[in-house]
Design goal:
Distance between the termini: 35 Å
Radius of gyration: 25 Å
Largest sheet: 8 strands, parallel
Helix content: 40-55%
CATH architecture of the largest domain: Alpha-Beta Barrel
CATH class of the largest domain: Alpha Beta
Strand content: 15-25%
Structural class: alpha/beta
CATH superfamily of the largest domain: Dihydropteroate synthase-like
Number of helices: 13
Strand order of the largest sheet: 8-7-6-5-4-3-10-9
Number of strands: 15
CATH topology of the largest domain: TIM Barrel
Oligomer: single chain
Bound molecules: iron/sulfur cluster
Shape: elongated
Order of helices and strands: EEEHEHEHHEHEHHEHEHEHEHEHEEEH
Length: 402
């Protein structure tokens, strides 16, 4: 993995986004912000699932007004997290009409494609930036190829370079629109460490191209996300592919996965996918990792499947308690392997691992702890004994929370 690209550090309501900090997970509510209780409940659920920042739609007067009440509910129930306002078309009007909302939001998200038509863009944008400066707030200039400036499209594609490669023009337009907006914000007096950029597209390879390019052109932290990724496994795989390639290149400071849900409701699945991406790239582990083999013709029974499930369930059932007792317990790696081919080797690489007997192997299961074989388990107590060994390992190896 390449070293993180050097960026400014941007403070978003106490959570720092930038290259010296861990990659932050964020998500978005899908409730109408007019509904205070439903929105506050979604924010809480997203935060509980691991979202460090949450964005909410601010699209009309009522939603702008409600931000204060939503923040109040969160504060009173001890949910202290940054809330980002997602604005399109009318940010300048809402932020100036609701100064308390402007003061209480932790970041404003703007899309340069719809801040205002070409003759209104400068004035509207300046009005927003003035409010951000007054309230000492950061902004995200978030371009999206679905809402690229009409002016740009007209100038470059319709009137001018129609014969040029359409995709390159769109990519270039997206990058230029966010960079130009960022420079304009700085010219208006917003500090460079108050700006985060994103350039979202819905194609994996194009997202990689766009971010690889913009990463060389500025020092602003980058918010990564494959927009409109779709639904189901395909959407998850596309998001994982896109974000992993970029993160592995050291590009990206905060991530969001956008999935079309199969029904309306809180989108904690998006947060889980973000966590899995960071965990599989070894950027951050959220809970013990279970390394298990897929099984094959050498597997003597489905016992390895049952044991893997049991270990995963044991982790899920105990993680909250372990976290209150042991520092760093989420970093443990546990191997559950199906036969002698890769079983002992993989188990030695893990903190604790078991190599179950494959077909024609003697019916015993060696257990390895920190690279050394410590015991051999047999019979119908393998599951319970292995879980006991995991518990003992955790209580001996991890420092107790004082
Ligand atoms: S460890 Fe053994 S059982 Fe598991 S996939 Fe490899 S060869 Fe098959």
């Amino acid at each position: 993995m390449k070293q993180r690209r050097d960026t400014y550090n941007v403070n978003v309501g106490g959570v720092i986004i930038g290259s010296t900090e861990p990659i932050r997970i964020q998500s978005m509510t899908n409730t109408p912000t007019e509904d205070i209780t439903a929105t506050a409940n979604q924010i809480k659920a997203l935060y509980d699932s691991g979202s460090e920042l949450v964005r909410v739609t601010v699209n009309n007067e009522k939603s702008a007004e409600n931000i204060i009440k939503i923040k109040d509910i969160l504060y009173k129930s001890n949910y202290i997290l940054p809330i980002i306002g997602d604005f399109h078309y009318n940010a300048h009007t809402l932020l100036s009409s609701y100064p308390e909302t402007a003061a209480i939001l932790d970041k404003y998200r703007l899309n340069p494609g719809n801040v205002g038509s070409s003759n209104k863009f400068n004035d509207n944008f300046a009005e927003i930036i003035e409010i951000a400066i007054k309230n000492d707030k950061p902004i995200r200039i978030g371009g999206n190829w679905g809402s690229l400036s009409k002016q740009y499209l007209e100038d470059t594609i319709i009137n001018g370079k129609k014969s040029d490669n359409y995709e390159s023009l769109i990519k270039e337009g997206l990058i230029q629109s966010v960079l130009k907006s960022a420079k304009y914000a700085e010219k208006l007096g917003l500090r460079s460490d108050k700006i985060i950029l994103s350039c979202k597209v819905s194609s994996v390879s194009q997202l990689v191209d766009v971010y690889s390019d913009i990463a060389t052109k500025c020092k602003y932290p980058l918010h990564l996300g494959l927009t409109e990724a779709g639904m189901g496994d395909n959407a998850v795989v596309s998001s994982v592919a896109a974000l992993s390639i970029l993160l592995n290149k050291g590009i990206g400071d905060t991530i969001r996965v956008s999935l079309t849900p199969d029904k309306m409701g809180v989108r904690t699945k998006e947060v889980e996918v973000c966590k899995d991406i960071l965990s599989s790239l070894n950027l951050k582990q959220f809970k013990p990792k279970v390394i298990s083999c897929p099984g094959c013709g050498r597997t003597s029974s489905n016992y390895f499947i049952e044991l893997t499930k049991d270990i995963n369930n044991h982790i899920d059932n105990n993680m909250i308690e372990w976290k209150t007792k042991y520092i760093g317990v989420e970093n443990i790696n546990i191997a559950v392997m199906g036969c002698i081919v890769n079983g002992p080797g993989e188990s030695r690489h893990a903190n604790i691992g078991i190599s179950l007997p494959g077909t024609n192997e003697s019916p015993s299961a060696p257990v390895f702890i920190d690279g050394k074989k410590v015991t051999t388990l047999k019979g119908d107590r393998i599951r319970d004994d292995f879980i006991r060994l995991i518990e003992e390992y955790i209580s001996k190896k991890y420092k107790k929370v004082s």
